[in-house]
Design a protein that fits this description.
With 203 residues, this protein is of the alpha+beta class. The protein contains 5 helices and 8 strands, in the order αβββαββαββαβα. The protein is 31% helix and 15% strand. β1 and β2 form a beta hairpin.
Length: 203
């Protein structure tokens, strides 16, 4: 029997999405008027590590404590929020971890960057399962409203500063999974097997 297609939740007004981020989290945002999508500005309260979704979900299975994490199905990317300034540190960290010069599909967004803003549950209602075919950016590990984001973000330093996750360990896990995913995709391409992520659900 063919399963019924998921019923998409109603789209929240874009200006309400932007207001939520600015008022509840104090995050600078752009767009939200005249039909423009809402975007979160990086390099102010946080930077972003971006990696392919297959590698990104593998990282989340390995690393229990991260900052907020978003999934963008349209871009096929997982985005991990890290401390502001981390984007500038990434090349040096990769060199120190002996990943320098290796193609990893691991990038960072810092000052001047933007990412698509997931619609918060408080604005749109309960999150639905993430299914193949969905194009909406969602929070996998959402930020906590009313709390400062900085103490939850990975920073450089053994164990992180003030209880925050350790950026070095997170980058090491991300590099490893990006490399593994790249090799697996190449192997599948040679064998003619399909690649891509499996359907995933988040409660």
């Amino acid at each position: 029997m063919t399963p019924a297609a998921p019923v998409p939740r109603p789209r929240a007004p874009l200006d309400a999405v932007r207001r939520w981020y600015e008022r509840e989290l104090g995050w600078p945002a752009a767009g939200g008027t005249a039909g423009e999508p809402v975007q979160l500005l990086t390099g102010v309260r946080f930077d972003v590590l971006e990696l392919p979704s297959d590698a990104g979900f593998a990282v989340l299975r390995r690393v229990a404590r991260t900052g907020p994490v978003a999934y963008d199905p349209a871009a096929g990317a997982v985005r991990l929020l890290v401390a502001a300034g981390s984007a500038d540190e990434l090349p040096g960290l990769l060199d120190w971890l002996e990943w320098g010069g290796i193609a990893l599909d691991l990038t960072a967004l810092g000052a001047g960057g933007r990412i698509a803003a997931p619609t918060p549950d408080a604005v749109a209602g309960s999150r639905e399962a993430v299914r193949v075919g969905s194009r909406e950016t969602v929070w996998v590990r959402p930020p906590e409203p009313g709390c400062e984001v900085e103490p939850t973000l990975p920073v450089t330093g053994l164990g992180g500063g003030g209880g925050a996750p350790d950026l070095v360990r997170l980058v090491g896990a991300a590099a490893t999974e990006c490399h593994r995913a790249r090799l697996l995709r190449a192997s599948r391409a040679r064998s003619g097997r399909p690649s891509g992520v499996q359907p995933l659900a988040f409660s």
